[in-house]
Every structure is written in structure tokens, then in C-alpha cells.
């Protein structure tokens, strides 16, 4: 689902507050049928929810809002942007900056232990589920 073309870009825009079909389409230049398919998939997997709205004198339309599961993808999108900015930088500078709300202190994505301390990448081990006994 996340690997489908356009999905990560839709999620990026949603994380920046975009909710309406027309806004996604305008931002991304995506064909309406493809956008409909991707939004339906995100709704099906409960990453987004569809909410009806109606402007006076217009037909009912839908907004697409991130669910809690969708909001958790902010770390993934942020990590991908952080990696791109570090390894494939644009001449104009970073694509996005993340800051602490209220203080504007810069943020970055990393591994954090249960005590809230960041763990350097060379100290991170991955244990696969099939390596656990009794599994």
C-alpha cells in the first residue's frame, strides 16, 4: 500500500494539512482516477478517513483526514525527507524543516531508547522475529 506510486506524496501533503481531493490533485498533478484509487486504498487500510462536507449550493464532497495510524507515518515521511536532504540535496536547500511547536527548535528523525535518549545508528541492532525462540 505505501509502495504504490503517489501514496507517499499524498501522505506528505496530508501531513502538511491538505484534506481535499482538488487540493491533492492540484498539488501533485495526478490523474483523478489514480488519486481516487490511492485515497480509497488509504481509507481501506485506515490510514485516512473520508468525511463528507458540502458547500452551500454545491453537491456533497469528501475530505480525507489522517487517522492516528496515518499521523504516525510522519516519522517515516520525515525520515525519507531527512535522508534525501542529506544524501541527494537540492541546490536550493532542504525540502522541509521540522521544528518543535512553540520554540522553533530544529528536529530530526532518529532511534530513541525507552529513556528518551537518541541511539547512534551504528549502535542499532535489528532482531528478526524468526530469531526469537518459541516463535
Automatic annotation (TrEMBL):
<keyword id="KW-0804">Transcription</keyword>
<dbReference type="InterPro" id="IPR002577">
    <property type="entry name" value="HTH_HxlR"/>
</dbReference>
<feature type="domain" description="HTH hxlR-type">
    <location>
        <begin position="1"/>
        <end position="92"/>
    </location>
</feature>
<dbReference type="InterPro" id="IPR036388">
    <property type="entry name" value="WH-like_DNA-bd_sf"/>
</dbReference>
<protein>
    <submittedName>
        <fullName>Helix-turn-helix domain-containing protein</fullName>
    </submittedName>
</protein>
<dbReference type="InterPro" id="IPR036390">
    <property type="entry name" value="WH_DNA-bd_sf"/>
</dbReference>
<dbReference type="Pfam" id="PF01638">
    <property type="entry name" value="HxlR"/>
</dbReference>
<keyword id="KW-0805">Transcription regulation</keyword>
<keyword id="KW-0238">DNA-binding</keyword>
